[in-house]
Specification:
Blueprint lengths: L1 H16 L13 H20 L8 E6 L2 E8 L2 H12 L6 E8 L1
Parallel strand pairs: 2-3
Antiparallel strand pairs: 1-2
Helix pairs in contact: 1-2
Protein name: Transporter
Keywords: Signal
Length: 103
């Protein structure tokens, strides 16, 4: 099941990659930055899925220029802290914005 989830995430990442443009601005990434951020997002999602304490289905991950934003809902403050720790541990993450809320 985990291999299927990882495969699906990679396919979605590749699909998203195919619709990018080349120029970078303050509000828009270059193709290279987009690829890097897609890889970071996939790695963070995979790390969250592998963490037994976290419910990956309820945590959303987005990355822009190395900054990871977490959102969604969890059951406790400990899960919020754990999700932040897991995301920070991923290579390439420059910082984490955590907008996860407790149900």
């Amino acid at each position: 099941m985990k291999i299927l989830n990882i495969t699906i995430l990679l396919l979605i990442s590749l699909l998203m990659l195919s619709v990018t443009s080349c120029g970078a601005t303050n509000n828009r990434e270059s193709t290279g930055e987009y690829i890097d951020d897609t890889v970071i997002t996939t790695k963070v999602k995979t790390a969250i899925m592998q963490d037994k304490m976290l419910s990956a289905a309820e945590i959303n991950v987005e990355t822009f220029k190395g900054v990871v934003q977490l959102s969604g809902f969890v059951s406790s403050r400990a899960e919020i802290t754990q999700a932040t720790s897991v995301a920070r541990a991923v290579k390439g993450v420059s910082s984490v914005k955590n907008d996860i809320r407790i149900k």
